[in-house]
Amino acid sequence: MKSFPLLLSQLLLVLLIALGSLTIICPKALAIATLDNFPSPNIENTEKILGPAGEIFEFSTCNAEGIGFTIANAQIPAGAGPLPHIHHYTNEWFWTPQGGLELFQSTKEYPDLDNPATVTQGGNATIYTVQTEPNQIVYGPKYRVHGFVNITSETRPLTFIWRQDPTSPEYEFHDGGIREYFKDVGIPIKNMKKLPKITDQAREKFVTHAPDYGINQSYYFLQYVNKLDNQPPAALANLKDDQSLNEIIETINAYNQGDSSVTCF
């Protein structure tokens, strides 16, 4: 039996097709960026949190001179994933070891935290979808409407990488506020074999507390979106920041090799 979130996502796509909002054309073949492996800091006890959108996170944060970031090795249940949202203080990468996730992102930017992508404020976004392949790495810079959903019937792994943007105010973990956000709105996991329930309070805080951490989080899918398109423009399909990503990888490797100038926790 399909999960309710998966059925809801499928019904939404059917509705958009019926309204003529979704382009159904076979996309041209696009080159994809891949990584054979993404390193994790060698930390004995990672912090485990259940996200209000269903993600099962294991967090690690690293700080060194001139850089701060959080990564989360996560499990994404079938049908799970966050509704459209915008980051203002972090730039993000998604690494999909097994693929099977549908990512979406806008080309339009929304740089004002007080004017998100609603009809009456920043204006709705067109979002472009991509069905990820194994080991694909996808870059999502700040200010873009984005999100994802697990479109398979199985739990799939996903590694999140969030790097603090230079414009971010200071947060406790020097990571642009992302880990602090999930500590605030998520539910701590004490036993990975017996996950806690996602409460209505957590879902509400997921939206209402988001601006405190430089995030606009929508309540429902079409709050920020007026069109989906499965043919991303080349500029979006080729979007990347390899220099910043390599600096993250080098920082993790330095920590794992005993570099005392790097702190990970």
TrEMBL record:
Database matches in SUPFAM superfamilies: RmlC-like cupins
The protein depicted here goes by the name Cupin domain-containing protein
